[in-house]
Design brief:
- The chain contains 14 helices and 11 strands.
- The chain has helices at about 5-10, 25-35, 50-60, 80-85, 105-110, 120-130, 155-165, 175-185, 195-200, 205-215, 235-245, 250-260, 265-270, 295-314, and strands at about 15-20, 40-45, 65-70, 90-95, 115-120, 135-140, 145, 170, 190-195, 220-225, 230-235.
- It has an 8-stranded parallel sheet. A 3-stranded antiparallel sheet has the order 7-11-10, with no helix packed on it.
- Helix 2 (about 25-35) runs parallel beside helix 3, helix 3 (about 50-60) packs parallel to helix 4 (about 80-85) and helix 8 (about 175-185) crosses helix 14 (about 295-314).
- The longest helix is centred in the last third of the chain and has 21 residues, at about 295-314.
Length: about 325
């Protein structure tokens, strides 16, 4: 594949970014994706600051290719996390779930490439205005925390592209080379892939959760808890408990009480498939196996090139 705006920005071989998913994206996954020619991301959202430092250091030892860190800005210790990122000379940071203005100029002053994750045209433009180098526009098919607007990737990407000057990365429902080509035809310069890498050998998630991804069928995930922070989950006992509570018109506090603490860790990292929060995208219905991250990247690129040739015949 020829170089484009995303591969030039990140200095990678392919315009494939691995999602920085909490409890899935440790140094093993990030380095494997980077070594295969994509951009691996360490998911800082589930790490204490010193744990993040350790993952960055191990990732540096495992790859000499570019990698980055994903930082959800709704977590505590944000100042310390940013300080560690600068101290460890991380070159790329993806921010999400917060105001891009908060840290963009600080990161840029330290020579860091900044990308912000959004779910709407409005926030894409705010991120561009804040000075980020690129934007990830994530459709509502995506797993984990998501936009309230429920805009699908198919409609979001061209709407953002129409108004954005900086490079655009598409996310949500992308797990194959064909989907990557479709996103790029719609105007994306690259893609971010989450769910497919959650079901990889190097993902730090519990094997029971990976197996649940493979077993998931169409309709097995749902967006819920919009009043707190919308999240797409596999339907399990915890999800059903939420639905039962909704029949009582609960307030925010009641929803928070049910959610409690460490639900995502319980589900994805500890493998409690009943009581845990199992965050995954709709595309899980298309994921049939757990395989090495490097194979996922290579297969996506091979399918992308083959699909391009097929499209030329149309």
């Amino acid at each position: 594949m020829t170089q484009n705006r995303i591969t030039e920005l990140f200095k990678t071989q392919y315009p494939i970014v691995q999602g920085g998913m909490i409890w899935n994206s440790g140094w093993r996954l990030a380095s494997a994706v980077s070594n295969a020619g994509g951009l691996g991301l360490i998911g800082a959202g589930s790490m204490y600051p010193e744990v993040l430092r350790e993952h960055i250091q191990k990732c540096k030892q495992a790859t000499n290719k570019p990698f980055g860190v994903n930082v959800p800005m709704l977590y505590p210790d944000l100042e310390l996390i940013m300080k560690i990122i600068v101290e460890e000379e991380v070159s790329i940071v993806f921010t999400s779930a917060g105001n891009p203005k908060t840290y963009t100029s600080f990161l840029k002053e330290n020579g860091i490439t900044v990308v912000h994750v959004v779910s709407s045209v409005k926030f894409a433009l705010k991120a561009q205005e804040a000075g980020v180098h690129a934007v990830v526009a994530e459709g509502f098919e995506a797993g984990g925390h998501n936009g309230r607007e429920e805009t699908t990737t198919l409609t979001l990407i061209p709407m953002v592209k129409e108004q954005l000057q900086i490079p655009l990365i598409a996310a949500g429902g992308i797990a194959t080379g064909r989907a990557m080509l479709a996103a790029m035809v719609l105007g994306a310069d690259g893609v971010q892939v989450g769910s497919r890498f959650a079901a990889s050998e190097e993902s730090s998630a519990h094997k029971a959760f990976k197996d649940a991804i493979v077993q998931a069928k169409e309709g097995d995930t749902m967006l819920t808890l919009k009043e707190l922070a919308p999240v797409r989950l596999i339907k399990n006992k915890f999800y059903e408990d939420i639905q039962t509570l909704y029949t009582q018109n609960p307030g925010i506090e009641q929803l928070k009480e049910l959610l409690g603490r460490a639900r995502a860790k319980k589900g994805m990292f500890e493998g409690n498939l009943e009581e845990g929060e199992l965050e995954i995208g709709q595309i899980s219905g298309l994921i049939q196996d757990i395989k090495p991250a490097g194979d996922i990247v290579r297969e996506m690129m091979a399918e992308f090139e083959a699909a391009k040739k097929e499209v030329n015949k149309l």
